[in-house]
Amino acid sequence: MGNKPRGLNAGKKLRQRREQFLYAKKDVKSMKTKAYKKYDPFEGAPLAKAIVLQKYEVEVKQPHSGLRKCIKAQIIKNGRPVSAYAGYGPGCIKKIDEHNVVTLERLGAPQRRAYGDMPGIKFRVVKLNGVAIKEIMAGRKEKPVR
Predict the structure, then answer these.
(1) Can you give the C-alpha Rg of the chain in angstroms?
(2) CATH class (in words) of the domain with range 44-138
(3) Which has the closest alpha carbon to 118: 84, 89, 95?
(4) Could you give the percent of the chain with pLDDT greater than 90?
(5) What is the DSSP string of the chain?
(6) pLDDT tens profile 28-53
(7) How far apart are CA 76 and CA 129, in angstroms?
(8) DSSP-derived pairing of the beta strands 123-128 and 101-106
(9) Where are the domains of the chain?
(10) What angle do CA 106, 109, 112 make, to 5 degrees?
(11) Predicted structure pTM score
(12) Is the dihedral of CA 101, 103, 108, 114 positive or negative?
């Protein structure tokens, strides 16, 4: 590649050059065309309500060992099933029952990637039947009965 064109009449050439290299950066095309929303179960939203289908444990990747408590839930607005981490301390999974309504959020991982040592887990439980799960675990609030 040579130098950039310079001068008074270089505008057209500079614009063409910018268009040529627009999608050179990783993930820019996905963001510009909104293609990531096609695969996103939340459809671009920060939170989503879901119904708990099942509770299970995930065996973590090397070099860690242990069983992480997770749930399988179905998002209400589009019916997509997702896996979510339910770990706000010991006994958290015991508070969550099947057919409860939970609010989910994304874990802090790159787009469409699993979080940390948990394979396939991209979301986390934030609320249980409309009440923050942290508050329930701390004993400040009781789990509402639906």
Answers:
(1) 22
(2) mainly beta
(3) 84
(4) 64
(5) --PPP-STT-HHHHHHHHHHTGGGSTTHHHHHTTTHHHH-TTTT-SEEEEEEEEEEEEEPPTT---EEEEEEEEETTT--EEEEE--SSTTHHHH--TT-EEEEEE-SSSTT---TT-TT--EEEEEETTEEHHHHHHTSSPPPP-
(6) 887 888 887 788 899 889 999 999 99
(7) 13
(8) antiparallel
(9) 7-39, 44-138
(10) 80
(11) 0.76
(12) positive
Q: Which two tokens stand for residue 39?
A: 């695969």
Phi-psi map region of 38: left, alpha, beta (phi>0 left; psi -120 to 50 alpha): alpha
How far is Cα 49 from Cα 116, in angstroms, rounded to an integer?
Answer: 23
d(CA 66, CA 95): 20
8 Å CB contact between 33 and 74: no
pLDDT recorded at residue 40: 87
The residues, any chain, with a CB within 8 Å of residue 94's CB and separated by 6 or more, are: none
Closest CA to 83 of 116, 110, 50: 50
Sign of dihedral through CA atoms 116, 83, 100, 108?
Answer: positive
